[in-house]
Design a protein that fits this description.
CATH architecture: Alpha-Beta Complex
CATH topology: YbaK protein
Distance between the termini: 33 Å
Shape: globular
Helix content: 10-25%
CATH superfamily: YbaK/aminoacyl-tRNA synthetase-associated domain
Largest sheet: 5 strands, mixed
Strand order of the largest sheet: 4-2-3-5-8
Number of helices: 6
Order of helices and strands: HEHEEHEHEHEEHE
Radius of gyration: 16 Å
Length: 179
């Protein structure tokens, strides 16, 4: 995995001097288990939108990764990941999936919680069942760093996009709406 100067466990990660290891989610545990460098970005209040998360973390929307769970007519799920300022194109995502998948729609709040273990607005592409394909928009791979949810609305994670794509076992494709 790529290494760059980011905080590691047992170091301080936020302005309130809370040790990184005091804030754990299944996502931070997954990153730690795979020795992936990340920076914990705590929020002063729960956030559920890209705009709110970017403000709380002090980053630009172009570094934020939106993780959008989609469901086809037969109950298959796929995770589509696009940058914070972009819109996912479900037809482009469908073109990346097996031919037996049919018309995609956005998953409901209940489906999101059941499939990802995260509440809507705090979804991450990591730690999903192997039967949920993860497709990243090509623009994500061109970023130097990206921000994802920690799986908890009280914190985000900054990491190298190569590490994110590798750990999610994702594939790259052009899946955004044209501007």
């Amino acid at each position: 995995m790529t290494s760059f100067p980011m905080l590691r466990p047992k170091r301080w990660a936020d302005p309130w001097s809370t040790p990184v290891n005091a804030f754990k989610t299944r996502i931070t545990e997954l990153l730690d288990a795979h020795n992936v460098a990340y920076r914990l970005l705590r929020h002063s209040e729960p956030v559920f939108t890209v705009d709110a998360a970017a403000r709380q973390r002090g980053v630009v929307k172009e570094e934020m990764v939106k993780s959008i769970l989609l469901r086809d007519k037969d109950g298959h799920y796929a995770m589509a990941c696009v940058l914070g300022h972009a819109r996912v194109n479900p037809r482009a995502v469908l073109a990346c999936l097996p031919s037996n998948w049919r018309r995609l729609r956005f998953a409901t709040k209940e489906e999101i919680l059941t499939v990802t273990g995260c509440v809507q607005g705090a979804v991450t592409p990591l730690g999903l069942d192997e039967h949920v394909p993860v497709i990243f928009d090509e623009a994500i791979a061109r970023c130097q760093k990206v921000n994802i949810s920690s799986g908890d609305p009280m914190a985000g994670l900054e990491l190298d996009p190569k590490d994110l794509i590798t750990l999610a076992k994702g594939r790259l494709a052009l899946i955004t709406e044209p501007r």
